[in-house]
Specification:
- There is one protein chain.
- The chain has a single domain, classed as Roll (Pnp Oxidase, Chain A), CATH 2.30.110.10.
- By secondary structure, it is mostly beta strands.
- The chain is built from three helices and twelve strands; from the N terminus they run H-E-E-E-E-E-H-E-H-E-E-E-E-E-E.
- 26% of the residues are buried.
- The chain has a seven-stranded antiparallel beta sheet.
């Protein structure tokens, strides 16, 4: 049975007074979880992001959207090269680590890739990117990257929905 009948819905107009309700509604869309890394003058830097999406196959483009208010925003906006790491179901702690501290590389296994970009070991997929474009997106920017190298492995993805981490339970 596909439809269980009508469910009560909460109707609201997004705005300053309903910001939490709007954020909760957006959280109903389950996403994968990524860590984006770049090289800075002070060393490697990481940020957790669930705003990652594919954009184009030809050329190979992806996008992600950091918040302008993040303390880590300026180096990522300026980064000519970066890597996006799609996390496995058992890497929620890694996401939480970098959500707290973008410089916590001493606690993980990683290596420097092309252009000195930090590459985290053991991820589900990894995309090494060259910045292609930046577009304004309200309180975020949309960073488009051209993928110059990609790697994948077989594992279950880490999923984020309604403020919680989980795993996809389909055929793996």
């Amino acid at each position: 049975m596909l439809d269980k009948g009508p469910r009560p819905m909460t109707d609201f107009v997004p705005g300053p007074d309903t910001a939490r309700a709007f954020r909760d509604a957006l959280g109903c869309f389950a996403t994968g979880v990524t860590i984006v890394t770049c090289k800075t003058e002070d060393g490697p830097l990481a940020i957790a992001a669930n705003s990652f999406s594919s954009l184009s196959l030809d050329p190979p483009l992806v996008l992600w959207s950091p918040a302008k208010t993040s303390r880590r925003f300026p180096p990522f906006k300026a980064a000519a090269h970066y890597a996006i790491h799609v996390l496995t179901a058992d890497q929620a702690a890694l996401c939480q680590l970098f959500a707290r501290d973008g410089t916590a590389f001493a606690d993980i296994s990683w290596s420097a890739g092309a252009h000195g970009v930090p590459l985290i070991d053991g991820c589900l997929a990894r995309f090494e990117c060259t910045q292609n474009a930046i577009h304004d997106g309200g309180d975020h920017v949309i960073i488009v990257g051209e993928v110059t190298r990609a790697e994948t492995t077989h594992a279950a993805p880490l999923v984020f929905s309604k403020g919680s981490y989980g795993r996809f339970t389909g055929n793996e």
